[in-house]
Write a structure and sequence with these properties.
With about 160 residues, the protein is α/β, with parallel strands linked by helices. The chain has helices at about 1-15, 40-50, 70-80, 85-100, 110-120; strands at about 25-30, 40, 65, 105-110, 125-130, 135-140. A 6-stranded mixed beta sheet has the order 2-6-1-5-3-4. The longest helix is centred in the N-terminal third of the chain and has 16 residues, at about 1-15. The chain is globular and about 35 Å long.
Length: about 160
């Protein structure tokens, strides 16, 4: 009986840690709770994430937070915001860093890590799945809607 309980508990923990499907999930852009920005256009968001705009309107330095390579939300974000694949993205940042134009974005290894980094750094901006956002961060509107208009992997291929 104890063995069955142990097996059940282990299976439950593994299920909690299993990656969820991306179909039907929407990305949201998150900032520190006290960031005064409530909304951005997609071109404005792109300027922040490409380090073309380095300060928020209140003068706070922008701190970029990206997910680790191969995270599904990163792949979609690169397609939608950067309009690049991972190889071009890495080259883009190597060139920026080499020219002294920007510091490398911070890397979050999970949604929890993303929330923690953004909630700790006043100028931080990142992204995660809509259902992973909580009160520790603020979701900002992009082009007048709450999440980015990225829904599942089919959007990365240009489908509606």
């Amino acid at each position: 009986m104890a063995f069955r309980l142990l097996v059940f508990a282990c299976a439950a923990l593994l299920a909690l840690d299993a990656p969820r499907t991306t179909a039907g999930r929407r990305l949201v852009v998150i900032v520190h709770r006290h960031n005064p920005v409530e909304k951005l256009t997609l071109p404005e968001l792109r300027k922040y994430f490409r380090a073309e705009r380095k300060h928020w309107p209140d003068g706070e330095p922008v701190v970029l937070v990206m997910r680790e390579a191969y995270a599904s939300e990163r792949t979609l974000f690169l397609t939608k915001v950067y309009q690049m694949d991972d190889t071009r993205y890495r080259r883009f940042w190597l060139e920026k860093i080499f020219r002294g134009e920007a510091d490398r974005p911070l890397t979050a290894m999970s949604a929890e890590s993303m929330r923690q980094l953004v909630s700790r750094e006043k100028g931080a901006v990142g992204f995660l799945w809509e259902d992973e956002a909580d009160a520790s961060v603020k979701v900002i509107l992009i082009d007048g809607t709450d999440p980015l208009t990225v829904v599942g992997p089919e959007s990365a291929r240009g489908s509606p």
